[in-house]
Amino acid sequence: xxxxxxxxxxxxxxxxxxxxxxxxxxxxxxxxxxxxxxxxxxxxxxxxxxxxxxxxxxxxxxxxxxxxxxxxxxxxxxxxxxxxxxxxxxxxxxxxxxxxxxxxxxxxxxxxxxxxxxxxxxxxxxxxxxxxxxxxxxxxxxxxxxxxxxxxxxxxxxxxxxxxxxxxxxxxxxxxxxxxxxxxxxxxxxxxxxxxxxxxxxxxxxxxxxxxxxxxxxxxxxxxxxxxxxxxxxxxxxxxxxxxxxxxxxxxxxxxxxxxxxxxxxxxxxxxxxxxxxxxxxxxxxxxxxxxxxxxxxxxxxxxxxxxxxxxxxxxxxxxxxxxxxxxxxxxxxxxxxxxxxxxxxxxxxxxxxxxxxxxxxxxxxxxxxxxxxxxxxxxxxxxxxxxxxxxxxxxxxxxxxxxxxxxxxxxxxxxxxxxxxxxxxxxxxxxxxxxxxxxxxxxxxxxxxxxxxxxxxxxxxxxxxxxxxxxxxxxxxxxx
Length: 481
Known about the structure:
The protein is of the alpha+beta class. About 30% of the residues lie in helices and about 15% in strands. Among the domains are: about 250 residues, Catalase HpII,  Chain A, domain 1 (Beta Barrel); about 55 residues, no CATH class. Strands 1, 2, 3, 4, 5, 6, 7, 8, 9 and 10 form a 10-stranded antiparallel β-sheet that branches. A hairpin with a 5-residue loop joins strand 6 and strand 7. Helix 11 packs across helix 13 and helix 12 runs antiparallel to helix 13. The chain is globular and about 80 Å long.
């Protein structure tokens, strides 16, 4: 029989008794000198790190991103080279609920991918929808507060959600998806993933092209009705977690087809919509999907806290050959996501094993709480220097990004914009049964919402398609006229 390892304190000292506190006699009070007890209690008080402000409830698995198509004319990224096979971590989540929220709730699903490439980590932090509720980051804190608990009741408020949405016509496209069948998937395996934002790809000639990232589920789309979702929640609040973990354990590895859309700068200038507006899609008929590869999940985490809860994704993590765009929401996320991790996990969050790149990290960053490597040892901690410290590499410089506008100002992001054609096109793509469920779900979600807010929202839907507005009007009993 193998001898079990000796239990120790965090300082490595062996522990003789892990069953009984040290007391003054069998019935006496506990002694302050019982450091082992104090250590256990003090650590327990600090075991939980703050949950994510959004995407708090999540599940994840490791896998591989395999490239089968040749897109070298668009990107020099090693991880996107035909034949490349990169380890990755994919975290799914619900968006609005807290860490204890049920999996089978109507909500957007997060789709956050970390690819451990030969040039460092590439993070694609997206959703199961190709668009988002807002297009200007100035409104992001306001929007998220409408999805959280109200300060007076400490409950979520349908009135707050519909008040914000009815005053934000740019939300119509995303809300149409949220209230459709795809707003309540049966599992994480049965959702698509999207980068949502417009990114850019850069080739070995220094040429930039605009890009959208897509991951199409090979498992097919399957959804619950609201009634089915409520029944599932009564049985299992971790239904999606169970499904994903169990599928991988039995060797039924979920897969997604990895595809991209591309748009030249000339096409972007001629496009009828702003190509950097995250509330819009690029029509596939105009910008067809290009096959790139396959994403497979094949390994479950061994420790949820270390490998999922502390996993930190940020759009700031790009690699040579992949870059950003003028998308306002993306620009803000480049800062805010990394900053959220510094607050939630700690300033050295990228040194944690799950976040650390698989390639050497060489820089001049030092110190900070919980620095658990050698902190750079005795190496020089400034640059430029004469001591052979890490040096910049001009060969990976991205080409200059031409900027539009001519001058800085606060431009009205809702002025002269079409928020109705794309949601209307989406509505018309649905069959009558799907349209009916969409409007039923939307009307049900408006229960108790003031009539004027409902009237404003129906007006938006009517502009997208008269049948959309009229159907919602009939279901709510609220007339636009």
